[in-house]
Amino acid sequence: MIENNPSNVSSAFEMLLEEVEAEIDFVNGVGAKAFEGRDYDKAKEALERSGTLTAFRDRVAALRKEWEEMAAAAERDEDEDTRAQRRNLGKLRKGVRTPESAYYQPILQVLDQMGGSGKVADVLERVGQMMKPVLKKVDYDPLASGPDNPRWRNAAQWARNSMIRDGLLKGDSPRGVWEISDKGRAALKEPK
Question: In this predicted structure, what is the pLDDT of residue 37?
Fold first, then answer.
């Protein structure tokens, strides 16, 4: 098997599906408000958009399933040397980069300072400034998948997904906005 770690692709599909699902929820909310306000044209438009997004989500879910089947078949067919090479492709040794968990408190603090929510670019800019004393040289290296994207930004975005899963950030925020949850505010008050 030639590609990098298949679990990275599975994680990317999962992130995409979460974002599409959030967009569907947002459009459904817009449609419900329009319907309540008797703006039936806007409600119909939202319903059509939601249908398009739902069909897209279903296609992405089918692609994810196809990927998982391909990866499982390839993994069954490869020898141990190939498996070991693939595990090491593009990956740093454990402990070389700043761990994802190190981003949690800075993200929560920045969002709290911003009044509870902020645009992704603004949040990441402030998190980067706050974490300068912590980040390592390797954290500033560009990723092979995105030469304009330093490793620390990617790690912070993965941290955001974990924080949503842990309930520290809201998963239903508008696209391009990160928002702290009540649980996240409570975690800020806990002693370090």
Answer: 94
Q: Going by DSSP bridges, is the β-strand pair 146-150/177-179 parallel, antiparallel, or unpaired? A: unpaired
DSSP the chain: --SS-HHHHHHHHHHHHHHHHHHHHHHHHHHHHHHHTT-HHHHHHHHHHHHHHHHHHHHHHHHHHHHHHHHHHHHHHS-HHHHHHHHHTT-PPTTSSPPGGGGHHHHHHHHHHTTSEEEHHHHHHHHHHHTTTT--GGGGSEETTEEEEEHHHHHHHHHHHHHHHTTSB-SSPPTTEEEB-HHHHHHHHS--
Q: Residue 54 and residue 49: Cα distance in Å, rounded? A: 9
Mean pLDDT throughout 81-88? 55
**18 with 171: CB under 8 angstroms?**
yes
Can you say whether the dihedral through the CA atoms of 68, 69, 72, 77 is positive or negative?
A: negative
- Least-confidence region, from 46-50, 142-146, 159-163, 187-191: 142-146
pLDDT of residue 116: 95
Task: Judge contact between 152 and 143, C-beta under 8 A.
Answer: no
Whether 130 shows a pLDDT value over 80: the answer reads yes
pLDDT of 28 over the 90 cut: no
**What's the pLDDT band for 4 if we cut at 50, 70, 90?**
very low
